[in-house]
Write a structure and sequence with these properties.
Mean pLDDT of chain A: 96
Radius of gyration of chain A: 27 Å
Radius of gyration of chain B: 19 Å
Number of helices of chain B: 12
Largest sheet of chain A: 7 strands, mixed
Structural class of chain B: alpha+beta
CATH topology of the largest domain in chain A: Aldehyde Oxidoreductase, domain 4
Distance between the termini of chain B: 55 Å
Number of strands of chain B: 13
Number of domains of chain B: 2
CATH class of the largest domain in chain B: Alpha Beta
Helix content of chain B: 25-40%
Number of helices of chain A: 18
Order of helices and strands of chain B: EHEHEEEHHHHHHEEHEEEEEEHHH
Helix content of chain A: 25-40%
Number of domains of chain A: 3
Oligomer: heterotrimer
Largest interface: A-C, 56 and 55 residues
Number of strands of chain A: 31
Distance between the termini of chain A: 52 Å
Low-confidence stretches of chain B: none
Shape of chain A: globular
Strand content of chain A: 25-35%
Largest sheet of chain B: 5 strands, antiparallel
Shape of chain B: globular
Low-confidence stretches of chain A: none
Chains: A alpha+beta (746), B alpha+beta (282), C alpha+beta (154)
CATH architecture of the largest domain in chain A: 2-Layer Sandwich
Mean pLDDT of chain B: 95
CATH class of the largest domain in chain A: Alpha Beta
Structural class of chain A: alpha+beta
C-alpha cells in the first residue's frame, strides 16, 4: 500500500490565501443583502414595514415572499421567505438589499414586522401523539405531523423474544447539532442578459440549479451555478444554499444588479439546517451464549419544520439500526415528526451516527448483562459473507470480522484503571456497517456523468459536478484519470465546477464522491483511451504509460500529445463522456424488505477515556478508527477523511448541542456551540484498510461519513467500563457525566 | 466617531472627564463582541492602551500590575513568575492565544463576568484594585468593587489603573483550577484559587475564592476559618469544600445549575486545597 | 482618520473609520481576502493575523488601534511566489482540506514559531487552540507545524 500519497491540486492556493471563496467575490455594482428573521417558533406574519429601513442611506430595497419571482415554497419545503406563517424561529421573512453590508445590516435591524404568535409544537413525541396541539401542514392535506416513516421487518420478533433467555430494553437520545463548516453559507447572484449566474459553495450543483430556476421562475437552461472554493460542507450547503441563492437572485433580478448574501455566523446557527435529534428505544433478546434472537426498535426523529432530506436520513437510520449483526427477527419502525423547531437535514453521516450510538451502546449493555466480553459478543453476532441482513439482503464483500481482528490487535480492551489522581480510565469499542451512496429509497437516481477531454497540447480536463468541498475528491479523480491514460498527475486537471459546462454528477453526499464520480471518470477515461488508440493504426494491444502510447513490450509509438493531435487532424473528437450508473437496488414498501444499498462498508473504532469524577469532564485520550475502504486512492487524504469525521464525532459525543428555549435556539455562535479544539484531541489514529475490494470497477468504498458514527458509542462504552455509569443521552456533558457517576455511587 | 488615544495618564483622565459616556477600550475582546451583539453602541472610544502607567508590571514594596497588561504578558512575566505565579497561571487559562494577546487585566475586572478567570486569582491574592478619578486614587478589594454580573462599581470619570498585591512569601502555597467544557476557548463552568501560608506544617492566612459559582467574587470566610491554623488534611479539605458549597447556596439560592455546581464545589474546593498543600511538599 | 501602518512589510496609508475592524479593513477596503471571516466574535480564529508579533483575531481589532503597528497576514508568508517552509509543510503533511481555517492556522503557527522555534506537540496544540478546524481533526496540522519547526532548525 502506498502510504505516501500525492499532494492535492487545490491546496497551494489555499495556503497562500489566493483561493477565492464565495464571500471573497466582488462584482461591479454589487449589492449586499441581509435577511430579517422571525423570532417566534410559529407565527402569522401580519405586516412587514420597511419604511424606517429604507431611510438608512444605502438601502435600495426590501423584498418579501411576494417578490420571489418563481415558486417560493413547495409542499412542506422550506420557503425562500416565509409568507403567511413562519413555521420556525429563524425563518427569513424579508431581505434588505443595500450598497454596503453595513447598511444592509442596519436596515434589516429596522424592518418592523408585526407577528401574531401561534401555538407551536416543539416536542416530536407530542407532534406524533394522537391529538397533537398543531398539525403543521393541514393545508397540504396532511392529517398528522408524520414527515416520513420507514419500517424494516424480518422474521417474527415476538417469536424471537419468546426464545430469548435475556431481554433488555433501553432508550437512547441524541441531540440537535450543526454542520459548522467554518465557511458561512453564502451566494452571489449575478443577473445575465437572459438568466442568472449564481456563485455559491454547494455539494449538489444541479440541485441548486433546479431549485434556483424554480425559485426565479426561469428555465433550467437560464441558470448557471458556479462553484468558488468551498469551505467545508459536512452534509450542509444544500437547501440552506438554495434559500440564500434564491434570496440573492430575487434582489439581483429585481434590481438588475449583482447581489451577495452571506449569512452571519449567527444566521447559520439560527436558520441553518441541523442534524435530526432521535429518540431510539431498543428491545433486544438474546440467549445466554450471546446469540441475539430478536431486536425491536422504535424511533422518533425531529424533522423540524420542513421536510428537506428527512426521507434519506430516516431511511438510512431504519436500514442500519439493527447494527452489523445477523439477527433472525427484526422489527424497526422510525418516524420523523414535523415540529416548529429549526429544520433538520442531512449532516455528514445521515442517520448513521444516531442509530450507531444506540445499537453499539446496546451491544455493550447486553454484554454486561450476559457477563460476556464486548468483543466476543460482537463476534458471536456479526454478519459474514453470505449473511442475510435485517432487510433480507444477502451480503457480499463483508469484512467486519477482519476489522474487529485489526481492532483487537491495535487496541486491546484491557482492564479499567484508576490514576493516582483518582481519575477513571478504560477503553471501549464499537463497530459498524454502512450502506453505500444514496440507497433504494432515494428520489434521485444514483448516476454520475463526467466528461474527459484531451487537448492538443496533451493536457486533459475533467468535467464533473462532484464537488470539491475539502475532501480532496477532485485530485482523486484526476489521479484515476491519469492512471487510465498513463499520464503524470500534473497533466490532468479537474476543471472548475460550472453547470454551464459540466454534466450532472449527482450529489457529493452519501460518501459517493469517489465511488460514483471516480468510476464515472474511469469510464470516460477508458472511452477516451479507446478513441486515442485509433491514432496508432495497425497496432494491436496499445498501452498507455508515462505519457506515451506503447506496444505491449513497452516500445514507444508516439506521445500522448501526438495521439491527440493525430485524432484531431482526422476530425475525431478527443473527448468522451462517462456515465456511472449504480447497481440496482430496490425496496418493497409492503413487506419492508429489499436490497437497500448496492454495497456496505465496514469499520471499527476504539476510544480510551479518562473521567474526572469531580467535574464530570471526559478526556478522550486515544481514538483509533479503522475503516475498510476497499481500495485507497490517496492514503494520507483517506486518513484525513477518517480523522476529520472522528473529530466531528468527538464534538457530537462531548460538547456540541443546540439547546432551545420555547422553540428559539439559545446558541448563537461558536462561543456557546462548542466544537473540539486542538487541545481536546489527544491522540487520534485514523487507519484506512484495504481488506476487501468493493464491488465496483475501482474497488473503492466511500470514506467520508462512516467515521462520524463510532466515536459516541465507543466513548459511551469506555465510560461505562471505567465507571459503571451508562450514558444514554448525547452529549456527555459535565453535568450528565457527573450525575451518572453520582447515581452509580448510590 | 471619535477615537481618543491618550498617551499619558493625566490626558486620559481629563478626556474621560470630558467624555464620560465614551467606551473605554483596551483589547476589545469584550467591547467589540458586545457591539456586534447589539448590547453596546459606543458614542466614542477612549483607548487606554497607550497610557504607559497602565502597561507596566513593577515590583516595589508591593507588586503593581497595570490595567492594560494583557493576559499574554501576565502569563509570560518573569516578575509574576517569581512573586505571584497564581496570576500567571490563571491568565494562561483565558480563551485562546489570540484572546490572550489582547484581553487585559483591567478589562477582566471591569467587565465583571462571574466566570472571569483572573478574578478568583486576584481575589485569593488579596489584590487591591487601584482606581483613579479626578479627585484622586482609591483602592478597593474585588469583592467590594464587583457587585454583580457586569456590575463593576466605578464612578463616572474613574479609570482602573491596575492592581496592587503583596508578593508571595517563601511559605506561600497556592493553586488555581478551572472547569471548562473544553480545554481551550472555554468559559469557566467553575474556577477557583487558593493562597495560604504554611508555617510549621500549619496553614495560615488562607484565602479562598471560587468563581462562576456566585453572582460576584467572594472570599469564603467560613471555609477559611475552618482551615486557619490547622494541618493539611483530606477530611478537613472536604469540610472546607462543604462550607464553600453551603455558602454558594446561601448566596445564590437553588438555581438550575445548582444541581451540578453545589456538589462539585465541595470536591473542587477540596482538590484546590490538596493541590496547594501538595505544591508545598514538592 | 488617516491610518498608517505596516502591512506585510509595506507601509499602508488610508482614510478609515477608526471603529472599523481590521478584518473589514483587510477584506473590504484592501481587498485582501486571504484572511477569512467566520464567527466575528473571536471564537474561531479564521481571521487570525499577527500584529507586532502576537496572534490576534482581526475581527476584534479596531482600526483606531492600528497606527504604527506591524501587521502580517497570510498574503505575507510566501516570498516571490515561493512558499515558506510552514506553507510547504502544510502541503506535504496534508494539513489542508477545505482550506477555510488554513490562513488563520498558518498565522497562529507562524506566531508560535517566531517565539518558540522548537515547540513540543503540546505547545503546538496550545498555540493552535484558538483556531477551529472542522475538516482535519487537527492531527495533520499539528504534524505540519512540527515538521516546519524541524525544517527551520536544520
Amino acid at each position: 500500500m502506498d502510504q505516501k500519497g500525492f499532494i492535492r491540486a487545490d491546496v497551494r492556493e489555499k495556503v497562500t490565501g489566493e483561493a477565492r471563496y464565495g464571500d471573497d467575490l466582488v462584482f461591479s455594482r454589487m449589492l449586499y443583502a441581509r435577511a430579517v428573521h422571525c423570532p417566534h417558533p410559529r407565527a402569522r406574519i401580519l405586516k412587514i414595514d420597511g419604511k424606517k429601513a429604507m431611510e438608512i442611506p444605502g438601502v435600495v430595497g426590501i423584498y418579501t415572499a411576494g417578490d420571489v419571482p418563481g415558486l417560493n415554497q413547495g409542499p412542506q419545503d422550506k420557503p425562500m421567505l416565509a409568507s403567511e406563517i413562519a413555521n420556525s424561529a429563524g425563518d427569513g421573512v424579508a431581505v434588505v438589499a443595500a450598497e454596503t453590508q453595513e447598511a444592509a445590516d442596519r436596515g434589516a435591524a429596522l424592518v418592523e414586522v408585526a407577528y401574531e404568535p401561534l401555538p407551536a409544537v416543539l416536542d416530536p413525541e407530542e407532534a406524533l401523539a394522537s391529538r397533537p396541539p398543531v398539525v403543521l401542514y393541514q393545508e397540504d392535506g396532511l392529517t398528522d405531523n408524520v414527515a416520513c416513516r420507514h419500517r424494516v421487518v424480518k422474521g417474527d420478533v415476538e417469536k424471537g423474544f419468546r426464545e430469548a433467555e435475556v431481554i433488555l430494553e433501553r432508550t437512547y437520545r441524541t441531540q440537535r447539532i450543526q454542520h459548522s463548516a467554518i465557511e458561512a453559507d453564502t451566494a452571489v447572484a449575478v443577473p445575465e442578459k437572459d438568466g442568472i449566474t449564481v456563485y455559491c459553495p454547494c455539494k449538489f450543483p444541479y440541485h441548486i440549479k433546479a431549485r434556483v430556476a424554480q425559485g426565479c421562475g426561469l428555465a433550467q437552461n437560464q441558470v448557471r451555478i458556479v462553484q468558488p472554493a468551498i469551505g467545508g460542507s459536512f452534509g450542509g450547503k444544500d437547501i440552506d444554499i438554495v434559500v440564500i441563492a434564491v434570496r440573492a437572485a430575487t434582489v439581483a433580478l429585481r434590481t438588475g444588479r449583482p447581489c451577495k448574501m452571506t449569512w452571519s455566523r449567527e444566521e447559520c446557527m439560527q436558520e441553518g439546517s441541523k442534524r435530526h435529534p432521535f429518540r431510539l428505544t431498543y428491545r433486544v433478546g438474546a440467549m445466554r451464549d450471546g446469540r441475539i434472537t430478536a431486536i425491536k426498535i422504535d424511533g422518533v426523529a425531529d424533522a423540524g419544520a420542513y421536510r428537506s432530506r428527512s426521507l434519506a436520513t430516516i431511511w438510512r437510520a431504519a436500514v442500519e439500526a439493527a447494527g452489523p449483526y445477523e439477527i433472525p427477527n427484526v422489527e424497526t419502525d422510525i418516524r420523523a415528526a414535523f415540529t416548529n423547531n429549526v429544520y433538520s437535514d442531512a449532516v455528514r453521516g445521515f442517520g448513521s451516527p444516531q442509530v450507531d450510538f444506540a445499537s453499539e451502546s446496546l451491544i455493550d449493555e447486553l454484554a454486561r448483562e450476559l457477563n460476556m466480553d464486548p468483543l466476543a459478543l460482537r463476534r458471536r453476532n456479526i454478519v459474514h459473507e453470505g449473511s442475510v441482513n435485517a432487510t433480507g439482503q444477502v451480503l457480499t464483500g463483508v469484512s467486519i470480522d477482519r476489522c474487529l481482528d485489526r481492532l483487537e490487535e491495535l487496541f486491546p480492551l484491557g482492564e479499567p484503571s484508576v490514576t493516582p489522581e483518582g481519575k477513571l480510565r478504560a477503553r471501549g469499542i464499537a463497530c459498524l456497517h454502512r450502506g453505500e451512496s444514496y440507497g433504494a429509497a432515494a428520489r434521485d437516481a444514483d448516476v454520475a456523468g463526467t466528461d474527459v477531454r484531451a487537448f492538443a497540447d496533451g493536457s486533459v480536463g475533467i468535467y464533473t459536478s462532484i464537488s470539491e468541498v475539502g475532501q480532496g475528491t477532485h485530485t482523486a479523480m484526476a489521479k484515476i484519470c491519469a492512471d487510465v491514460l498513463g499520464l503524470p498527475l500534473e497533466q490532468v486537471r479537474v476543471c472548475p465546477v460550472d453547470t454551464a459546462f459540466v454534466p450532472d454528477s449527482g450529489a457529493t453526499a452519501g460518501s459517493r464522491g469517489t465511488i460514483s464520480g471516480g468510476n464515472a471518470v474511469r469510464i470516460a477515461a477508458e472511452s477516451l483511451r479507446d478513441i486515442l488508440r485509433g491514432a496508432a493504426e495497425g497496432e494491436e494491444d496499445v498501452i498507455f504509460q508515462d505519457g506515451w502510447l506503447c506496444r505491449k513490450d513497452g516500445r514507444r509509438l508516439m506521445t500522448f500529445r501526438e495521439a491527440v493531435q493525430i485524432c484531431q487532424s482526422r476530425g475525431v473528437r478527443t473527448d468522451a463522456a462517462g456515465q456511472w450508473v449504480a447497481p440496482r437496488t430496490g425496496w418493497d414498501f409492503e413487506k419492508h424488505q429489499g436490497k437497500t444499498y448496492y454495497s456496505f462498508s465496514y469499520g471499527a473504532a476504539g476510544a480510551e477515556v479518562e473521567i474526572d469524577p469531580v467535574t464530570g469532564k471526559v478526556e478522550v485520550l486515544d481514538l483509533l478508527c479503522l475503516h475498510d475502504i476497499g481500495k485507497i486512492v490517496n492514503y494520507p487524504e483517506a486518513c484525513g477523511q477518517i480523522a476529520g469525521g472522528v473529530a466531528m464525532a468527538l464534538g457530537y459525543t462531548l460538547t456540541e448541542e443546540l439547546e432551545s428555549r420555547d422553540g428559539v435556539l439559545k446558541n448563537k455562535n461558536f462561543d456557546t456551540y462548542l466544537l473540539p479544539t486542538a487541545m481536546d484531541i489527544h491522540r487520534l489514529r485514523a487507519i484506512p484498510l484495504e481488506e476487501t475490494a468493493a464491488e465496483n470497477p475501482l474497488g473503492v468504498h466511500g470514506v467520508g461519513e462512516a467515521s462520524t458514527a463510532l466515536v459516541a458509542p465507543a466513548v459511551a462504552n469506555a465510560i461505562a467500563r471505567a465507571s459503571g455509569a451508562r450514558l444514554r443521552t448525547l452529549p456527555f456533558s459535565l453535568e450528565r457525566v457527573r450525575s451518572a457517576l453520582e447515581k452509580e455511587e448510590r | 466617531m471619535e477615537f481618543l488615544r491618550p498617551q499619558a495618564l493625566e490626558e486620559a483622565l481629563s478626556l474621560l472627564a470630558e467624555h464620560p459616556a465614551y467606551t473605554i477600550l483596551a483589547g476589545g475582546t469584550d467591547v467589540v463582541v458586545r457591539r456586534r451583539e447589539g448590547r453596546l453602541a459606543p458614542e466614542g472610544y477612549l483607548d487606554v492602551t497607550l497610557v504607559p502607567e497602565l502597561r507596566e508590571i513593577w515590583n516595589g514594596e508591593s507588586i503593581f500590575v497595570g490595567a492594560a497588561v494583557t493576559c499574554r504578558e501576565l502569563e509570560e512575566s518573569p516578575i509574576l513568575a517569581a512573586v505571584c505565579p497564581l496570576l500567571a497561571a490563571a491568565a494562561s487559562t483565558v480563551g485562546s492565544p489570540q484572546i490572550r494577546s489582547r484581553a487585559t487585566l483591567g478589562g477582566n475586572v471591569a467587565n465583571a463576568s462571574p466566570a472571569a478567570d483572573l478574578i478568583p486569582a486576584l481575589t485569593a491574592a488579596d489584590a487591591q484594585v487601584v482606581i483613579q478619578g479626578r479627585q484622586g486614587t482609591r483602592r478597593a478589594a474585588l469583592p467590594d468593587l464587583i457587585q454583580g454580573p457586569g456590575r463593576c462599581a466605578l464612578e463616572p470619570g474613574e479609570l482602573i489603573l491596575g492592581v496592587v498585591l503583596e508578593p508571595f512569601r517563601e511559605t506561600a502555597r497556592w493553586s488555581f483550577d478551572k472547569i471548562g467544557r473544553r480545554n481551550a476557548l472555554a468559559i469557566a463552568r467553575m474556577n477557583g484559587a487558593v493562597v495560604l501560608e504554611e508555617e510549621g506544617g500549619q496553614m495560615r492566612n488562607v484565602r479562598l475564592c471560587v468563581g462562576a459559582a456566585a453572582r460576584r467574587p467572594v472570599r469564603f470566610r467560613g471555609a477559611e476559618a475552618l482551615l486557619e491554623g490547622q494541618n493539611p488534611d483530606k477530611d478537613l479539605f472536604r469540610r472546607a469544600g462543604e462550607a464553600v458549597s453551603q455558602a454558594i447556596l446561601e448566596e445564590t439560592g437553588m438555581r438550575e445549575s445548582s444541581r451540578y455546581k453545589l456538589p462539585v464545589a465541595v470536591e473542587f474546593t477540596a482538590r484546590l486545597l490538596e493541590n496547594a498543600a501538595r505544591r508545598g511538599q514538592a | 482618520m488617516k491610518l498608517e501602518f505596516i502591512l506585510n512589510d509595506k507601509p499602508v496609508s488610508l482614510e478609515v473609520e477608526p471603529d472599523m475592524t481590521l478584518l473589514d479593513l483587510l477584506r473590504e477596503r484592501l481587498q485582501m481576502t486571504g484572511t477569512k471571516r467566520s464567527c466575528g466574535v473571536g471564537e474561531c480564529g479564521a481571521c487570525t493575523v499577527i500584529v507586532d508579533g502576537e496572534p490576534v483575531n482581526a475581527c476584534l481589532y479596531l482600526a483606531g488601534q492600528l497606527p504604527g503597528r506591524w501587521v502580517y497576514t497570510v498574503e505575507g508568508l510566501s516570498k516571490d511566489g515561493k512558499l515558506s517552509a510552514l506553507q510547504q509543510a502544510f502541503l506535504d503533511h496534508h494539513a489542508v482540506q477545505c482550506g477555510f481555517c488554513t490562513p488563520g492556522m498558518l498565522m497562529s503557527a507562524k506566531a508560535l514559531l517566531l517565539k518558540n522555534p522548537h515547540p513540543t506537540e503540546a505547545e503546538i496544540r496550545r498555540a493552535l487552540s484558538g483556531n477551529l478546524c472542522r475538516c482535519t481533526g487537527y492531527e495533520a496540522i499539528v504534524e505540519a507545524v512540527g515538521a516546519a519547526a524541524e525544517r527551520g532548525s536544520s
